[in-house]
Amino acid sequence: MTVLQGESLLNDATALLLFAAAVGVATHTDDVASLLPTLLLGIPGGLLWGCVAGALFVSLWRFWAGTHSITILEFASTFGIWMLAERMHVSPVLAVVAYAMWLARGAPKRQSPRDRVHSSSVWDSVVFILNVLAFLLMGLQARDILRRLDGSALWDSMGFAALVLLVVVVTRLGWVLSYRAILGRLLPGLSKTGGDLKLRVLIGWSGMRGVLTMATAMSLPAQFPGRDVIMLSAFAVVLGTLVIQGATISPMIRWLGIPPDMSLDRDIKRARAILDQVGDDMATKEIDGIDHARKVVDAQREALRKLLSDHRIAQDVFGHLQEELDWRELSLTSHSDREIREA
Asked: Phi, psi (5° rounding) for residue 341?
C-alpha cells in the first residue's frame, strides 16, 4: 500500500505537468522552450508552496478552533491552494499533498478532539459525494460522446479505446516486472524495493485509474482535435481498470498465495498495550473521578505522540489510536464543551 500510494502521488503530479505542457504545445499557446522552467520547477515549487501554506494555516488554527468556520476554511484553503498553485505554474497536486501532510503533523497538538472528529466526518461525507458526482458526470459525458459517433466512427473509436486500455495494463505490468533489471545498474537500491515476484505481479495488476484520469481528459478545450476519442479512451481506462482489475485483485491474491498482511493489527495491539500500561501507572495515583480519567487520556495521548516521533509506530497506527483517544476524551467532556459554535 505504501508503494501504491506513493507511486500514485508522484504519477499524478508528473502526469498533470506533462499534460499541461502537451496541451499548450498542441494548441500553439506555448513552445517547448518556454515550458521547460515550468516542468523543472513545478514539483519542488508545488512542495514548497504547500509547506508554506500549511505552516501559515496551522499558526492561525487557534483563532477559529471549535467553530464551523474552521471547516469552511479547510475547504476554502484546500481549493485556494490548488488554484494559486496553478497560477504560479507549480504542481497543484503536490502542493495540496504537502499542505495536507503539514496539517497532519501539526494537528495532533493544535486541533482538539471535538474539531478533529467533526472535520473527519464532514470530509469523509464530502469525498464520497464528490466521487459519486464525478462518476455520474463521467457517465453523462460518455453517453453524449456515443450519441455523436455513429456507424464505423463509433466502432473505430471503441476499438481504439479498448486498445488504449490494453496498452495501459500491459505497459504497467511490463514496467513493474522489469524496472529492476533496466535500472538496477544505475540505482543499486532498487534491488531491495517492490517485494518478490508475486508482490510485483500484484502491484503491476493494481493499476486502477480513477476520477483524475477522467477529469484531466474533460479539461481539454471543447474544440481540441480528437477530444471525443480521448474522452472515450479515458472512460474505457477508468471503467476497465476499476471493473476488470479491481474485481480480480482478491482472486489474484489467493491464486498467488500471498498471505494476509496482519501488520497493522499487530502494531495497533502493541501500541495499545503501551498505552494501557500508561493508564495502569496513572491508576496508582490517588485521583478519582472524571479528572483522573482525563489525566489518563492526556498521558496516553502524550505517550502516543512520542511513539510516533520516535518512529516506533506508523502514521496509520497513530491515526487509529488517536481516534480511540478522541472518542474517549469526548465521552468525558460536558455537552456544552462538545458543541461546535457557529462562529
From this structure: -75, 155
User: For the chain, which residues make up each domain, given as ranges?
Assistant: 1-111, 125-260, 263-338
CB 236 within 8 A of CB 162: yes
Joined together, the cell numbers standing for residue 200 give: 510485483
pLDDT tens digits, one per residue of 216-272: 888 888 788 888 888 889 889 988 888 888 889 889 888 888 888 788 889 999 999
* Spacing of C-alpha 271 from chain mean position: 25
For residues 94 and 50, is the Cβ–Cβ distance under 8 A? yes
Q: Residue 152 pairs with which residues in a beta bridge?
A: none
Task: Assess contact for 232 and 288: CB atoms under 8 A.
Answer: no
Q: Which residues pair with 341 in a beta bridge?
A: 67
Distance CA 286, CA 33 (A): 73
pLDDT, one tens digit per residue, over 205-216 is: 888 887 788 888
Give the integer Cα–Cα distance in Å for 52 and 96.
Answer: 11
- What are the distances in angstroms from CA 31 to CA 23, 24, 85, 104, 219? 11, 7, 21, 39, 20
Phi and psi torsions of 225, nearest 5°: -60, 130
**What band does 134 get if pLDDT is binned at 50, 70 and 90?**
confident
Inter-CA distances, 201 with 94, 240, 259, Å: 28, 18, 15
Per-residue model confidence (pLDDT) at position 270 = 92
Higher pLDDT, 282 or 176: 176
Span 268-293, pLDDT tens digits: 999 999 998 888 877 665 555 777 78
